Amino acid sequence: MKIEASFITSAANASGLPADGLARIALVGRSNVGKSSLINALVRRTVARTSGAPGKTRLANVYLVARGHAPAMHVIDLPGYGFARGGTAGFAEIATAVLAPGVAALLLVDARHPGLESDRDAWTWLRRTVPRAAVVATKIDKLARGERIRAMRQLESVFEDSVLPVSAVTGEGLDELWKLIDSLVSRPHPSSSPSRPRRQPPSSPPAATARPRLEKTTGPTRARKARRRR
Ligand code: GTP
Ligand code: MG
Predict the structure, then answer these.
(1) Which of 54, 94, 153, 163 is the most buried (most CB within 10 A)?
(2) What is the SS3 assignment for 209?
């Protein structure tokens, strides 16, 4: 299927976003989790800048993506949480401004670190802030089969939702991810459904901190492993 993608703009707040009424999907996740790489993999070309060092994406970068005959959408690459260098607004400010009601979101979590506190906080916050969100486990290519089964089981238990494993390197899961994105952006806004319970008022997104901090995972073994990897 033909995919067209182009960079549109960088925004630090909602007024910097294009106001053309297209569906929007934002990628949210810790710095270095692979948000920009996943956008490039999805559109099969390098539109977003990536880096081995955290903190590469500093603003909300908006891409116009048109896939086959489906309606075009905006894909928004956000700065990551868990890392910030001084000088510009961090994740919390930008995400709060950009993730207005009506924007769908993907929470990206590193498949190797299931259940980090900041990811759990982000999921709680996202579910209260946007009408439609799903969890995606990145860098699944880095896990051997047994580790992968354990990680996926733990992720689905922590987030209490299905989690889609993907790899920007091998392309695994990308067809499924497109289907998921299509379903998120085309689903009607839940506020139009009278049977749905009211959402809690938005709480705060995870703050960007000076450096990635050690976080609690759901078990002591994983916490030790996570510490060794950093
Ligand atoms: P920030 O912009 O700093 O928030 O980071 P980001 O989430 O956009 O991460 P980015 O896409 O820049 O990727 C970070 C690093 O992870 C880079 O070195 C990528 O090559 C690597 N990476 C991203 N996705 C994958 C993946 O699926 N598999 C593997 N093995 N590496 C990946
Ligand atoms: Mg990035």
Answers:
(1) 94
(2) coil
Kindly report, residue by residue over 149-202, the tens digit of the pLDDT: 999 999 999 999 999 999 999 999 999 999 999 999 986 655 544 443 434 444
* Strands (E) located in 13-59: 23-29
What are the boundaries of each domain within the chain? 3-186
Q: Please report, for residues 46, 71, 157, 192, 193, the alpha-carbon distance to residue 21 in angstroms, rounded to integers and kept in the order given.
A: 25, 11, 36, 18, 21
Q: How many residues does the chain have?
A: 230
Q: Which CATH superfamily is domain 3-186 in?
A: P-loop containing nucleotide triphosphate hydrolases (3.40.50.300)
Ligand 1 within 6 A of CB of 79: yes
Please state the pTM of the whole predicted model: 0.84
Whether 206 is in the pocket of ligand 1, judged by its Cβ within 6 Å, is no
